[in-house]
């Protein structure tokens, strides 16, 4: 498999390529999975995100990756790191991690396995000084998972995003410093 970035016990995390937009659209783009991410996307929206992601890898050496289950070869999600680029955020340019797992693979430990590997990669290989993760306050499973990863709530970085409705605002952030990661 080309462009493997990280390999874990059960997962291959590989760069996103041109043909992955349709795969993501078919497998991950469901109302339940996309509920806290602005809802189901059109194929052209996913294609645009993928193009931006491929540009990040070319420019910075990091981005989001497809999570492939080794046992089946199936897409189980995507995860990785980008720079905070929301114009409403006061910390634009920080290293932001994120993940998305297809619904039939929830509670199988894939997000945990992938994100611990992404955090290690971010600090050891990329040299990020600290990481942030963004979600909305209503997405309790997401921010509880951030806490499980050792991240700490940063209320000073909360912001309102007018592209989301009131139920999905404010956007909240959690942070993990390299020092706290090293102590864990």
How would you describe what is shown here?
- The protein is of the alpha+beta class and 184 residues long.
- The chain has a single domain, classed as Aminopeptidase.
- 32% of the residues lie in helices and 26% in strands.
- An eight-stranded mixed sheet has the order 1-2-3-4-5-6-8-7, with helices on both faces.
- The mean pLDDT is 94.
What are the defining features of this structure?
184 residues, Aminopeptidase, 8 strands, 26% strand, N-acetyltransferase, GNAT family N-acetyltransferase, GNAT_dom
Blueprint of the fold:
Elements (H helix, E strand, L loop, with lengths): L3 E4 L3 E5 L4 H8 L15 H18 L3 E6 L5 E9 L11 E7 L8 H17 L3 E7 L3 H9 L3 E2 L17 E7 H6 L1
Helix pairs in contact: 1-2
Q: What is the assigned CATH homologous superfamily?
A: Gcn5-related N-acetyltransferase (GNAT)
Biggest β-sheet strands, sense, barrel: 8 strands, mixed
How many structural units, i.e. domains? 1
Cross-sheet strand order for the largest sheet = 1-2-3-4-5-6-8-7
N-to-C span:
32 Å
How large a portion of the residues is in β-strands, by DSSP E? 25-35%
Rg, please? 15 Å
Order of helices and strands: EEHHEEEHEHEEH
Please state the structural category: alpha+beta
Give the proportion of residues in helices.
25-40%
CA-based shape: globular
* Count of discrete alpha- or pi-helical segments spanning 4 or more residues: 5
Instruction: Please count the beta strands (DSSP E, at least 2 residues each).
Output: 8
Question: What is the level 1 CATH name?
Answer: Alpha Beta
> What's the architecture, going by CATH?
3-Layer(aba) Sandwich
**In terms of per-residue confidence, which ranges show pLDDT below 50 for 5 or more consecutive residues?**
none
The CATH topology corresponds to: Aminopeptidase
> What's the rounded overall pLDDT mean?
94
């Amino acid at each position: 498999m080309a462009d493997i970035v990280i390999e874990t016990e059960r997962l291959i995390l590989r760069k996103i390529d041109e043909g992955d937009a349709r795969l993501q659209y078919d497998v991950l783009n469901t109302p339940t999975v996309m509920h806290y991410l602005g809802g189901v996307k059109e194929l052209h929206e996913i294609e645009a995100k993928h193009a931006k992601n491929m540009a990040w890898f070319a420019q910075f050496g990091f981005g989001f990756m497809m999570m492939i289950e080794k046992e089946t070869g199936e897409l189980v999600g995507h995860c990785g790191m980008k720079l905070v680029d929301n114009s409403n955020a006061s910390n634009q340019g920080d290293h932001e991690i994120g993940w998305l797992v297809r619904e039939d693979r929830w509670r199988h430990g894939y997000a945990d396995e992938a994100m611990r590997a992404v955090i290690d990669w971010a600090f050891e290989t990329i040299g990020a000084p600290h990481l942030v993760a963004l979600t909305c306050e209503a997405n309790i499973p997401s921010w509880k998972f951030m806490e499980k990863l050792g991240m700490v709530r940063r209320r000073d970085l909360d912001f309102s995003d007018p592209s989301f409705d009131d139920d999905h605002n404010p956007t909240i952030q959690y942070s993990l410093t390299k020092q706290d990661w090293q102590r864990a």
